[in-house]
Amino acid sequence: MEDGQHMWRLAKDSAVLDLNSSYSYILWCRDFSATSTIARIGGEPAGFVTGYTRPDRPNTLMIWQVAVSSDFRGHGLAKTMLNELADRTNALRLETTITDDNDASNRLFQSFAEQRDANCERSALITPDLYPDGHDTEYLYEIAPL
Questions:
Q1: Tens digits of per-residue pLDDT, 55-86?
Q2: Rounded to two decimals, what is the model's pTM?
Q3: Residue 121, pLDDT score
Q4: Contact (CB, 8 A) for 133 and 126
Q5: Are 95 and 109 in contact (CB under 8 A)?
Q6: Sign of the Cα pseudo-torsion (118, 110, 19, 126, in order)
Q7: Pfam families, alphabetically (predicted)?
Q8: Which of 125, 111, 114, 119 is nearest to 143 (CA)?
């Protein structure tokens, strides 16, 4: 559970992720450690991926957040973590949601799909009319088969 504080800091420092409460990251580490990971380089927290298997589709790994410290970007760490989680969970499908303005995540998941020789379908999932705070559309990426 101690990794939750590092995940919260990495998410906060990213300046692009929706920051959840520190409490939620700590609970995430307790309840979803099998489908999440944190990377350390030289003992320093360098990045994380949070995910869960969908209750109605247990072979689908839903990725919630991906963060890499600015000190460690550009070296493929995010894709390495995604591959590790996909392999560890034996997922047949991977899903995530991304806004149009998140170029890094859009490139990451397209590249992940290409590397896995998987189809990557994109469709609007959560539109602004569903949000109480004017959030941008979250597009669902469905990547399969893994």
A1: 999 999 999 999 999 999 999 999 999 999 99
A2: 0.94
A3: 98
A4: no
A5: no
A6: negative
A7: Acetyltransf_1 (PF00583)
A8: 119
